[in-house]
From TrEMBL:
It is an enzyme of class 2 (transferase). Its EC number is 2.7.13.3. Pfam families: HAMP, HATPase_c, HisKA. It comes from Stomatobaculum longum. One of its GO terms (cellular component) is plasma membrane. It catalyses: ATP + protein L-histidine = ADP + protein N-phospho-L-histidine. One of its GO terms (molecular function) is phosphoprotein phosphatase activity. This is histidine kinase. The chain crosses the membrane at residues 12-32, 174-193.
Length: 501
């Protein structure tokens, strides 16, 4: 920080102490002498009134008067004398300085400050107080000359005045030394004490800086029970709330990005779907239209030629019908509009049934077909009709892609609480870049070969949709000499009632 609060606070205390020392120095230089003189005058005034009361009530020669004179002499350093003005007789006096006081009285009565060294400080009808300089003693005094209430007794009082200028100079030097020490000590003391105050503040400043950089893990650890502690606790609460709010905001942003990505993926798939459907329908429609126009134009007058034209039209119409039915099935499966008919059945029997249905494909491909499964059968719980679709798709794909003279193997492998069904065909492997997309709608690795056997690129998408509804996995793997498609189903214990069905 450019200007820390600790430094500013210390500088403020230093400035306050310096100003106080300067004020004290000025007051001592210009006000001490005046205050000292005023105090001396007040002492003489109080002494006059007290002595006047005692003289009026007890008399000037009373014991009380003597004790009072001694008191003022010892307590206030005041020399007092009582003189009878009629015969100039000394009635009472303190022992100290009788002759000197009498000389000052004579000087006051007869010379009246003819040398200009006397200053009248206060004058009333009853008394006069003045300051005079005594050449003999080389000192200044403050004197009081007054008549008591009887208008006959003269009261004379004097008190020495110290050399105030020298005293002020010495006092100022003392103040200068002590002030410097006080300032240094005060600065070090304040610098040390402010660390207890500014430490928590610096901690709060560091916390606020980290909060500004989105670091909400910081917390105030102080134990203060004052305003700083309350502020720290409030900042902790604010950090917790901000952390929760930012986490929720980040989660919302993540979900929004996922939703946008999902929506973009849906839009992309919709565009691809429309393009693929258009592409798949374009060829059979063009063929049907061409052959129909040929029939209409009479290009095939011979019966055999007409039957050939009609056969092509029927084949392409059947291809479109199959495509539409597959699309309808896939749409229903993906939208969960088809309810699964869950039942317990023997997966071995289903596999044998599919192999019987595809016997023609096996003979056309010249492949060796085998089923590897437990002789006792394997009971699973699933939708038997949909699983037959999956098996039919896998097996027919295997026959269409098996190499000439190769083999197609269907394996049923019990694995704990599940059964893994594998359909293997020897032959050309699938490129690695195509493996992950093989179950996408209309995706074809070899479009010419797929067209040859009537594939639409939807069969594996239907397989994935069926297995998704069963909450079971499926996939494809490359083997050293071929390709293996697989899926899994949960095993089930077949009840007696189901065995009799």
């Amino acid at each position: 920080m450019k200007h820390s609060i600790r430094l500013r606070f210390t500088a403020l205390i230093f400035a306050v102490l310096a100003v106080l020392m300067a004020v004290l120095f000025l007051v001592n230089s210009f006000g001490l002498e005046r205050f000292y003189r005023r105090q001396k005058v007040l002492d003489l005034e109080n002494a006059y009134h007290t002595l006047d009361e005692i003289a009026a009530s007890k008399g000037t020669d009373s014991t009380e008067m003597e004790e009072l004179l001694r008191y003022y002499s010892s307590r206030y350093n005041i020399t007092v004398a009582l003189v009878d003005s009629a015969n100039s007789k000394l009635l009472q006096s303190t022992e100290n300085g009788k002759s000197r006081l009498y000389q000052r009285v004579q000087r006051y009565l007869f010379r009246q400050d003819e040398d200009g060294k006397t200053l009248v400080l206060k004058k009333t009808e009853s008394y006069t107080i003045l300051q005079a300089y005594d050449d003999g003693s080389q000192s200044a005094n403050i004197d009081c000359f007054a008549y008591l209430s009887d208008n006959q007794t003269l009261l004379l009082m004097t008190t020495p005045v110290a050399n105030l200028k020298e005293s002020v100079r010495l006092a100022n030097r003392f103040l200068l030394y002590m002030g410097a020490l006080t300032l240094l000590f005060g600065v070090f003391l304040v610098w040390g004490m402010t660390s207890r105050i500014t430490g928590p503040i610096r901690s709060l400043a560091a916390i606020s800086e980290k909060l500004g950089h989105m670091d909400f893990s910081v917390r105030y650890r102080g134990q203060n029970e004052d305003e700083i502690g309350v502020l720290g606790n409030n900042m902790n609460s604010m950090a917790e709330q901000l952390e929760i709010a930012v986490s929720e905001l980040r989660e919302a942003n993540r979900k929004l990005r996922d939703d946008l990505a999902h929506q973009e993926e849906i839009d992309r798939m919709r565009r691809e779907f429309i393009a693929n459907v258009s592409h798949e329908l374009k060829t059979p429609i063009a063929l049907i239209q061409g052959y129909a126009e040929g029939l209409e134009d009479g290009l095939c007058e011979e019966k055999e030629m007409r039957e050939q034209y009609l056969g092509v039209i029927l084949d392409e119409a059947g291809r479109m019908n199959k495509l539409v039915r597959q699309l309808l099935t896939l749409s229903q499966l993906e939208s969960d509009k088809l309810d699964l008919n869950m039942e317990v059945f023997d997966l071995r029997e289903s596999a044998e049934s599919v192999l019987r249905k595809t016997k023609v494909l096996a003979e056309e491909s010249g492949a060796k077909v085998s089923l590897e499964a437990p002789d006792t059968g394997i009971s699973v719980r699933a939708d038997a009709f949909r699983i037959d679709e999956v098996l039919m798709n896998y097996v027919s794909n295997a026959f269409h892609h098996v190499e000439e003279g190769g083999e197609v193997i269907v394996r049923l492998l019990p694995r704990g609480e599940r059964v893994r069904c594998e359909v293997y065909n020897s032959g050309k492997r699938i490129p690695e870049e195509d493996l992950g997309r093989l179950f996408e709608k209309f995706y074809k690795v070899d479009k010419a070969h797929t067209r040859k056997y009537g594939g639409s690129g939807i069969g594996l998408s239907i397989v994935r949709a069926i297995m998704t509804q069963h909450n079971m996995p499926c996939g494809v793997e490359n083997c050293p000499s071929g390709v293996l498609f697989w899926f899994e189903l949960p095993r089930a214990v077949q009840t007696n009632s189901e065995e009799h069905k």
